[in-house]
Amino acid sequence: MSFISLTYFLLFLLAPPTAQPQPPIEPLQIAEQFVAPEGWPDMKSYLCCEAADQARRQTLGQQIPRALRRRCQLLRQDSARAVVAVELRDSTTRNDFYLHFRREPAAGWKLQAVRSLAASGLSTPMLRLLTQMPPAEIARYNQAHPAADHAFTVGNLRLWMSADADIARHFSRRRRDFQQVVRLVQARPYFAPSATADSAAAGEQAANADPAVRQLLRTLFISRVGRHDTGCGTCLEFIIGGTLHNSMGLLYQPDAAAVPAMSPAHIIVIRPLGQGWYLYKTT
To answer: Quick one: signal sequence residues (predicted)?
Structure first.
């Protein structure tokens, strides 16, 4: 070996190793870091938009009680968007949050927004009031509210306030009855595909006034069926409740390609329940 060749060989051996590029962090990994109880020094590198303004010093995991158990589940990811559901729970409570991500061409995945259903502050005291009523007062309540009696209102409020896992369990137990409502509605021209806005509203009203449909919805603790919460003209919504801009329910659409997309501005979660059924929430 020549002197020059030997010199280059020794320089190669003594040179520091070339740094290998780090693989990009995926949305699920970012979510797990963001909800972990420990701090995350690199947090700001993976936030954008409103999430960057809201989490300036602490992650979500640092802002909630350390004893809460945290579970992250990737619901959807494509080349540009992703949504991760986060369940927080302890021995008595469960809460669900939804982390929305977007992919920036030069910077990779960024957490864009954190969403949850903004439930009415009146629901908890109202449920407490209803469940503490004596029998005579329940009878008077039922006379005053024949369309939504005491049993239905209590069951509906509990479902509205339930965690995603409990709503999914309720649906699983009563799947046959939910499917029966679909058959009843589809057998009648309540939701014609080419209906105008006025006829669609009339069709929805007629569907919810149908005695067979209404009876099943009452036993399922569903407020009504419709097609206006999600903006999906071919989906059937089983609306549990909520306020004008914060609603939740179950969605039926057997064609997965026709299921509407999630976004921080409208449908904050669409959670698959199997065979064309989904749990949805809007904001």
So the answer is: 1-21
